[in-house]
Amino acid sequence: MSGGLSIYGGDMAEAFRFLDSLSANNNRQWFQQHKDDYEAVMRHWLVQLQRLIDAMSEWEPRLSGLTAKQCAYRIYRDTRFSPDKTPYKVYLSASFSPRGRMAHAPGYYLQLDSRPGELGLYGGVWCPESAVLAKLRRAVVDNIEEWEELLSEPQLAAGYPGWCGVTLKTVPKGWPRNHPQAEYLRLKDFGKFMPLQRETFADPDWPLHVAGMFRPLKPLVDFLQYSIDEDV
User: Fold this and answer.
1) Closest Cα to residue 6, out of 36, 49, 51, 48?
2) pTM confidence score
3) Phi, psi torsion values for 123, nearest 5 degrees
4) How confident is residue 11, by pLDDT bands cut at 50, 70 and 90?
5) 105 near 99, Cβ under 8 Å?
6) Which of 38, 145, 146, 204 counts the most CB atoms within 10 A of its CB?
7) For residues 136-175, b (16+ Cβ closer than 10 Å) or e, as one string?
8) How buried is residue 18: exposed, middle or buried, by Cβ count under 10 Å (0-12/13-18/19+)?
9) Which of 126, 129, 85 is nearest to 109 (CA)?
10) How far is it, in rounded angstroms, from Cα 214 to Cα 68?
11) Residue 40 near residue 4, CB atoms below 8 Å
12) In whole angstroms, what is the distance from residue 225 CA to residue 136 CA?
């Protein structure tokens, strides 16, 4: 690619082309040579993210007033403590919670990825602090009927099967090994994932469609948030 990108309407093809090229050339020299391309992709990405936020705000009022810049993540990797020293992510991503891209708060997450199986929608809470995780486990056990009812909602169960994240091999310390809710007690992340195909983003109105795909996650996100906020 050279001379800038031709991005218009709801066409995300150029974003995927850029990510594909970056994946094959993940180095600073190539990135600097294609900085104009990246900036064009980001301008379009932020416009579309704002459309998504506005659409989600119709059923998730806690997102009202958020801006795309508050939710979008940087493409630059923090390599200080990682054996992988490639300088850039090969995906675009954004997290939507009342606090923007607050990684450890219950919310919604979109990853536009060049790698198969990594492109999709996420909802829940990731890497909560140990005290918060303990609180969530207790909330699930104490409200198991409500919890299982929301998980069995047809749209959520069909679109977001299983759990995404880290799971312990055994029930955590302090709980019986044969606890009836062992499946949930072993979770370290309470997250759901819906894989998507690139074709989803070929529609100029993809932000409206993706907002609808996120909506079945709201009861789960609500449960996690009020469980965290609840006084002990």
Assistant:
1) 36
2) 0.91
3) -150, 140
4) confident
5) yes
6) 38
7) bbebbeeeeeebeebbeeeebeebbeebbbeeeeebbeeb
8) buried
9) 126
10) 17
11) yes
12) 9
Token pair 């469609």 in the structure block, residue: 209
What residues contact residue 114 under an 8 Å CB cut-off, 6+ apart?
Answer: 16, 19, 20, 22, 23, 90, 91
C-alpha–C-alpha distance, residues 30 and 34, integer Å: 6
Calpha distance 124→200 (Å, rounded): 22
The two structure tokens encoding residue 218: 């709201």
Residue 232 pLDDT class (50, 70, 90 cuts): low
Closest-CA residue to 52 (of 70, 30, 32, 78): 70
99-127 residue pLDDT tens:
888 767 899 999 999 888 899 999 999 99
pLDDT at 9: 37
Listed in sequence order, the residues at least 6 apart from 40 whose beta carbon sits closer than 8 Å to its beta carbon are 4, 5, 7, 14
Tokens for 191, please give them.
Answer: 């997250």
Report the number of secondary-structure helices (H) and strands (E) in the chain.
10, 4
